[in-house]
Design a protein that fits this description.
- It comes from Polaromonas naphthalenivorans (strain CJ2).
- The protein has 112 residues and is of the alpha+beta class.
- The chain has a domain of 75 residues: Winged helix-like DNA-binding domain superfamily/Winged helix DNA-binding domain (Arc Repressor Mutant, subunit A), CATH 1.10.10.
- 64% of the residues lie in helices and 12% in strands.
- It has five helices and three strands; from the N terminus they run ααβααββα.
- It has a three-stranded antiparallel sheet with strand order 1-3-2.
- A hairpin with a 2-residue loop joins strand 2 and strand 3.
- Helix 3 packs across helix 4.
- The longest helix is centred in the C-terminal third of the chain and has 26 residues.
- The chain is extended, with a radius of gyration of 18 Å.
- The relative contact order is 0.12.
């Protein structure tokens, strides 16, 4: 991020903001396996179609998912596979932190 203008930093922050909501991460995880329409995603996530549509709009705006109309339905798929590399990197970091915390707790015996 060295020498980036403020406008670029604003765009980067918006991209990360798109990834900062658990429902959007759930949607991305579901789309990792196969494309889905809004109704399918709503059912799989346990939310309303309107709620899922709002999240998909945000993900589409930032180029993470692509929309394709087929008849009366719109299907969504991943548009930027590199998002999974980023998510895997973050998940690995969090897993290591949790493992270190668990090891730290094992050093101290439980109070009796």
């Amino acid at each position: 991020m060295e020498n980036l203008p403020p406008e670029a930093l604003t765009e980067i922050a918006a991209y990360f903001q798109a990834l900062s909501e658990p429902t959007r991460l759930q949607i991305l995880n579901l789309l990792r396996q196969e494309e889905h329409n809004v109704g399918e995603l709503a059912q799989l996530c346990g939310f309303t179609a309107a709620n899922i549509s709002r999240h998909l709009t945000m993900l589409t705006k930032h180029g993470l998912v692509a929309r394709e109309s087929r008849g009366t339905s719109a299907y969504y798929r991943i548009a930027d596979e590199s998002v999974y590399e980023l998510c895997d990197l973050v998940c690995g970091k969090i897993a290591r932190q949790l493992q270190q915390a668990a090891q730290k707790h094992q050093v101290f015996p439980p109070a009796e």
